[in-house]
Specification:
It is a single chain. This protein has helices at 42-53, 62-70, 74-90, 106-119, 123-130, 134-151, 161-175, 236-242, 244-251, 295-308, 310-321, 337-353, 382-395; strands at 22-23, 58-59, 180-192, 209-217, 223-231, 260-261, 267-268, 271-273, 284-285, 329-330. The chain is an alpha/beta fold. The chain folds into two domains: 43-154, no CATH class; 157-395, no CATH class. The strands form three sheets. Strands 3, 4, 5, 8, 9 and 10 form a six-stranded mixed beta sheet that branches. The chain has a two-stranded antiparallel sheet with strand order 1-2. The longest helix is centred in the middle third of the chain and has 18 residues, at 134-151.
Length: 397
């Protein structure tokens, strides 16, 4: 489990406390905050000094600077270190010696990996900031990903019924939709491929080579189901049907919680919401289409949109936090890329589970999939249409 967040005393905010102040570090290391005394912080101040030597900038506040580089507070960073510590100590990759001739600490290894994922910068530039070589960055990052993939899976699971009831209550309080369990959306992870691997299978509608990530998020924009590894050339609806989530729902083993009964005795089962890229199904509610919608239909669309926007917002936050997913990936191993994507989703969830806060400018300012036109799926399941009408009637009471 994630560490329990300690309560903090309120602080008086200055007029520009919400602004991100950028300064260049120079000279000696800044004073060590009391909460960091006794911890392994040498790597951190060495990193700051090297960052300054490169002529780059960072926030002046110690805590904000740490979040700026690694997306988490030091407390959450230490929790992540605790997840992978055993693996990084017992089975370290070969050659993890820095230029001073000392074995890299677990904290420094985690910092290297998280900086690579957070910035999306080249292995050479990340290595320069930490005083290590490109091969070390490569080894450290992949070992971190392997360990997180194995040991942090509990941060991305389908909710149990007790938690699901909380999610449904929050969705109804925020959007008015009853029995809603989540929002679905998908995004393209763009990459370059060698000529021998390039094929139309990986060429998407925007003429990029890409891999899909489909995510379902809860009321807090936490990923509760993902599927990745499929080519970006697929339709959204096709990707959905290839997912394990679809197979579970189709078999009645997911979204199978308590059914609500409306005043007209119509049944409202558990469902998720998505845009018109997806089919209308008994467990997936999409908006009404057409120019002359009735007032109840328009009301449903407005409430459905309020709920489904959590999907694209979560993906914008994911790709904004872990910029390796937002930059064009240079010839990635397509067998390893799904693991990188999964670990970025795990880190996204850990930040939420630890009640951590991102810097305000991390989320992408634009849509997570700029340059892609919205698809339309014409598939309408008759039972899905009936349930959407039942929900629409329920919202009028």
């Amino acid at each position: 489990m994630a560490p329990v967040k300690k309560s903090k005393k309120g602080k008086r905010k200055s007029k520009d406390s919400g602004k991100l102040k950028i300064v260049k570090y120079g000279g000696g290391a800044p004073p060590l905050p009391p909460e960091l005394r006794g911890l392994d912080t040498e790597w951190w101040y060495t990193f700051l000094h090297k960052h300054s030597e490169l002529g780059l900038s960072a926030p002046s506040d110690e805590g904000e600077a740490f979040r700026y580089f690694f997306r988490t507070s030091r407390r959450t960073f230490d929790y992540i270190c605790s997840i992978v510590r055993e693996d990084l100590i017992s089975r370290p990759p070969s050659g993890l010696i820095n230029i001073e001739g000392r074995l890299l600490s677990v904290e420094k290894q985690v910092a290297i990996a998280m900086r690579r994922l957070a910035s999306g910068d080249s292995q050479v530039s990340v290595g320069a900031a930490f005083g290590v070589g490109q091969s070390t960055v490569s080894q450290v990052t992949w070992r971190f990903i392997e360990s997180m993939e194995e040991r942090a899976r509990h941060h991305l699971v389908w909710p149990g019924q007790e938690r699901m009831e909380q999610i449904k209550a929050r969705f109804e309080a925020e959007s008015g939709l009853p029995n809603c369990c989540g929002a679905i959306d998908a995004t393209h992870i763009i990459m370059t491929l060698p000529a021998v691997e390039s094929s139309e299978d990986w060429c998407d509608p925007a003429k990029n080579y890409s891999m899909f990530l489909q995510g379902i998020v809860d009321d807090e924009m936490r990923f509760i189901d993902i599927v990745t590894g499929w080519p970006g050339s697929m339709m959204f609806s096709r990707l959905l049907k290839c997912s394990g989530f679809f197979k579970h729902c189709d078999a009645g083993t997911r979204l199978d919680g308590p059914v609500m009964v409306s005043a007209e005795n119509g049944e409202i089962r558990e469902y998720i919401v998505g845009n018109n890229c997806y089919p209308l199904l008994p467990w997936l509610m999409t908006p009404y289409e057409g120019e002359s919608l009735s007032a109840p239909m328009a009301s449903f669309n407005a409430r459905q949109k309020a709920a489904r926007t959590l999907g694209p917002r979560a993906l914008s936050r994911l790709k904004g936090s872990w910029r390796i997913l937002n930059k064009v990936m240079w010839r990635p191993d397509k067998n390893k890329l799904p693991s990188i994507i999964l670990v970025c989703c795990l880190l996204h969830n850990i930040i939420i589970d630890c009640e951590d806060e991102l810097l305000p400018d991390v989320q992408l300012p634009d849509h997570h999939d700029t340059g892609y036109s919205e698809e339309k799926c014409e598939q309408v399941d008759p039972n899905g249409k009936i349930m959407r009408d039942v929900i629409t009637g329920y919202l009028q009471i």
